[in-house]
Specification:
Length: 103
């Protein structure tokens, strides 16, 4: 899941800011944002780029569904699920390897 999210994030960073072609524009005064007020023309995303993003998003959704519906969560008491999820999420970050099992 982390690899898919990282791939999607990296891909989107390389793409134009707008999916559809957009002419250059400026944000009107009165908005309190730290971002640029001017935006250049955006050629939009190509059909191939749209397909790549859609495929990664679909894979992310599929992996999320597998994780959320895994039988393991039925074995964990409801009040303990948040802690179990947190431990699972951070298991690979542990230096001592505690909580990691061979796959």
């Amino acid at each position: 899941m982390n690899e898919v999210r990282a791939s999607l994030k990296a891909l989107v960073k390389t793409l134009p800011y707008s999916v559809e072609p957009v002419k250059a524009w400026e944000r009107p005064d009165g908005y309190w944002l730290a971002t640029s007020r001017s935006y250049p023309d955006s050629p939009g995303w190509s059909e191939q780029e749209k397909k790549e993003v859609a495929a990664l998003r679909e894979k992310e959704r599929d992996l999320t569904a597998v994780i959320l519906t895994h039988a393991f969560w039925g074995e964990v008491d409801a009040p303990e699920r948040a802690d179990a999820r947190s431990q699972l999420k951070h298991a690979l970050e542990r230096e001592d390897g505690e909580g990691q099992e061979a796959a």
